[in-house]
Design a protein that fits this description.
With about 325 residues, this protein is an alpha/beta fold. The protein has 2 domains: about 110 residues, Immunoglobulin-like (Sandwich), CATH 2.60.40; about 190 residues, Rossmann fold (3-Layer(aba) Sandwich). It contains 7 helices and 15 strands. The strands form 3 sheets. Strands 9-8-7-10-11-12 form a 6-stranded mixed beta sheet, with helices on both faces. Strands 2, 3, 6, 13 and 15 form a 5-stranded antiparallel beta sheet that branches. The radius of gyration is 21 Å and the shape is elongated. The two termini are about 20 Å apart.
């Protein structure tokens, strides 16, 4: 049995992102599932079961999956288990605005990395300019050495430049992986180059790469904070959460980071387990086509299956 869904053309994605409203996504809906970034247009998820036993199927192949748009077959280029290795990139605000939280940032990251054993880890400091402290480490000793190299930076950070640097690092790895960005930042000033345009370009790129982003904001407990101007880090965290399906949390500057960072580690682990029961299906479609209806069929006999746009199945 096929699954049909409203589809949104890729040509409209950039226009939606560049409105800068970042509030309402035109959505891809598969049987009432949640909204998903339009970048998932070339990526679908299939969870398949043996009809007789209910056992999860984990060995689907390209010839067994057909994707059609308005009845026309689209080229399926790859079908593989969706539980790809995690490629974790952590961006940390080490500017003087975050100075009173500096030791707790390091302690919280140490706890966080301890919750993520055997994962590839990279750590990027954002002040006074993006600087790699760790790249592609797996062993805890190398990660700990990077944490010790973290030092207090300047009066401002370069958050947008850091996101772009993270995107470059992720793009260099052409192997199968699932990129995850974790941003730990204060409400301090961002002095990135060409900030607005570069952020829009970076968001589009991160979506193409399939990044999930989690943000932990450290805000000062100042009176009248409800009337204060939204910081760059807050705006970035909000938009990354909405467009990548990640999360955003806020604590007071100087509070312990162990619990909120552990919560992010739990989210990443939960996502890994969710994807371990699914396949990711990649396919091609012309960018200039108007919206159509996508139908997915699995040809292997004796299976039932559920298709989603983002791998987050309705409960």
């Amino acid at each position: 049995m096929g699954i049909a869904t409203p589809w949104h053309a890729a040509s409209s994605r950039s226009a939606r992102i560049r409105t800068r409203a970042f509030t309402v996504l035109a959505v891809l809906v598969v049987w009432g599932l949640r909204a998903t970034p339009a970048e998932a247009q070339w990526r679908l998820y299939v969870q398949a079961f043996e009809r007789s036993t209910g056992a999860i199927v984990t060995d689907l192949a390209v010839p067994e999956v057909i994707v059609r748009e308005d009845g026309f077959a689209l080229p399926v280029v790859d079908v593989r288990p969706a539980n790809l290795p995690t490629k974790l990139v952590v961006l940390v605000d080490n500017s003087r605005t975050a100075a009173r939280a500096f030791d707790r940032i390091r302690d919280g990251l140490r706890t966080f990395f301890g919750r993520m054993p055997n994962q590839e880890v990279s750590l990027l400091a954002l002040s006074p300019r993006p600087r790699w402290l760790v790249q592609g480490a797996i062993g805890q000793e190398e990660i700990e050495a990077g944490l010790r190299r973290m030092e207090l930076g300047g009066r401002s950070m370069r958050l947008i430049d850091g996101l772009a640097e993270a995107g470059d690092w992720i793009a260099e790895d052409d192997g199968p992986h699932r990129p995850v960005i974790v941003l730990v930042a204060s409400s301090g000033r961002d002095r990135s180059d060409d900030r607005n345009e570069r952020f829009l370009d970076t968001v589009e790129r991160l979506l193409r790469q399939g990044v999930t982003a989690h943000t932990l904001l450290m805000l000062p407990p100042a009176p009248g904070s409800l009337q204060r101007r939204l910081s760059v880090a807050e705006a970035v965290g909000r938009d990354l959460e909405e467009f990548t399906g990640g999360s955003q949390a806020t604590i007071f500057l100087g509070s312990r980071l162990d619990d909120p960072l552990s919560d992010i580690a739990t989210r990443i682990g939960r996502r890994n387990r969710e994807l371990s029961r699914q396949h990711i299906v990649r396919f091609e479609r012309p960018n200039d086509l108007p919206p159509g209806r996508i139908q997915v069929d699995v040809l292997r006999l004796g299976l039932r299956y559920v298709v989603s746009a983002d791998g987050k199945l309705a409960e």
